[in-house]
Amino acid sequence: MTYAGIYSQSKENPEKFWMGAAKGIDWIKAPTKALSDDRAPFYEWYADGVVNGCYNAVDRHVEAGNGDRTAIIYDSPITESQSKVSYAELQDKTAMLAGALAARGLVKGDRVIIYMPMIPEALVAMLACARLGLIHSVVFGGFAANELATRINDCTPKAILAASCGIEPSRVIEYKPLIDAAIELADHKPELTVVYQREQAVADLSMARDQDWNEFQAGVEPAACVPVNGSDPAYILYTSGTTGAPKGVVRPTAGHLVAMNWTMKNVYNVDPGDVFWAASDVGWVVGHSYICYAPLIHGNTTVMFEGKPIGTPDAGTFWRVIEEHNVKVLFTAPTAFRAIKRVDPKGEFFAKYDLSCLDSLFLAGERADPDTIEWAQKHLGVPVIDHWWQTETGYAIAANPMGIEQMPVKLGSPAMPMPGYDVQILSDEGHPLPAGELGAIVIKLPLPPGTLSTLWNADERYQSSYLDAFPGYYETGDAGMVDEDGYLYIMARTDDVINVAGHRLSTGQMEEILASHPDVAECAVIGVADALKGQLPMGFVCLNSGVDRPEEEIITECVGLVRSKIGAVAAFKLATVVDRLPKTRSGKVLRGIMAKIADGTDWKMPATIDDPAILDEIKTAVQKLGYAKS
Ligand code: COA
Ligand code: AMP
Which CATH number fits domain 501-624: 2.40.30.20, 3.40.50.2300, 3.40.50.880, 3.30.300.30? Predict the structure, then answer.
């Protein structure tokens, strides 16, 4: 059947469509219906089904006789090591870790924070939680102690599962001191910290709550898979919103399993046994969905790559991994390709490897610029598919579904809405806009299975963040348009979120941190265009009167403050002191205009501006930072 046929089936009879998709999952008790809307706008999928996520990702493949199949390929150029984990081994490992957690009294519904780098134990930790119905929350290794503390307070975990360190090309990051600092900062105190020791930095485990990963599991009874209700949360994943407090996106169990399984064949066109590689990190949604859950649920082999697209050791690393492990589909962020292209513009590394196993490349996480797509197409010789999604949805809202039908690629567009997503473009007043007109991208409720059910402990914030602006619709926070063929174009965020190297960050949060500096009276942070990372944050601070310290000193402190509070991943390095910020007469900071000035793009003087002369000062300031060059 064509894409159009499948999409219209999902729209005309969603119940039938999603009950059909549910057959791809092994249920303890099959659901009698797909959608429950009695608590709308809090929709539930497969609410009366009973299921286990780990069983579907691991045990069922072993029971089907595929225990010898490789589940995980760990390829770590950064430590110069590799290993493989079969499905049978993964079953043993998850059952043992789950057994140890159960022996310490953790039960279904308890939260567990996972703070681990790209090593197979991170997947074991996630799946061991799923085995017991524990709700995991993975925190990206690039976040600082303060961010970890915020998450500890919000989801109040009983345990933290961690590794002793993460490894960046320039340094080893010791995790244990970060965890201890975070627990010190947090009001909630987890009972248990279980640490997987890596030889690059062995952690001190002398605190009463500390446990060594191996000793913790020694002699325990392996745990069986626990029955979990369909709408119980599988995990919480924090993502940036407009304020300093991250949003705890709640992923419901059964819808997640069904959607993950469905996308593997229909979107990515892989069959069980094929090797699938999402070059991301377990700390992001791409890592949850396409390093861990989807490939394993579908019986694929997933690649865990601990390295960077360049410098570990060179710009041919990705092609080596594809050749060596027979990768059929690669999924990464455009920034990875921009990084490779910058080092190897002629694509000389491609020729050194046999890439004939590769069927397609999928890009997401940020806008895929046409240059990057064309460069990748030229050198890989396979379809390059842009697809659009968010932490909240957990999988593609729009894509070119390779397993259904490959539609013509239009550069700059992630193609068409996927089944279950009724995507519309609305004006600020909520009226549908015609093809070609830019507006807010919204999705008619209910969202399909596997998308967020709410925000952790914050039903009201869920409603005010996503549902209030356009009643009856989910507000994506993206602006864009649809063309006359129905192709979507994602142009910009409508909020304070910026996208740096595929990482979602909040400028509002950075402003809160800068404002906490004792010499800063007020500030603004904007996202400026960057040829490598897509966007970079740029800060403007106005100092309190009477401050007579050197500006450079204050800027260095501001940069250090953001790094220490959010982490290196914020990539906050551009900042400057200005006398005043440009504002409207009602006092709203004109961040959009400031970003346009920095990017050197066209802008119009807003009629409501308080004092137009300030814009010249802003231009001079950004020029000093190397931007707005005429
Ligand atoms: N743990 C600790 N620190 C981390 C980290 C982690 N897991 N990941 C990144 N960082 C640090 C980096 O070392 C860097 O620190 P620095 O300021 O001291 O140099 C900082 O955070 C910024 O990282 P990043 O923005 O990733 O820049 P980079 O220069 O290290 O790498 C790319 C640039 C393009 C190579 C890299 O971003 C990349 O590979 N991106 C691929 C896309 C991707 O994975 N996207 C995720 C969503 S799909
Ligand atoms: P995250 O929740 O970190 O996955 O970030 C989601 C946001 O990244 C989206 O709301 C978009 O702003 C942006 N994004 C993700 N994929 C794409 C894409 N294919 N094209 C344009 N923007 C994208």
Answer: 3.30.300.30
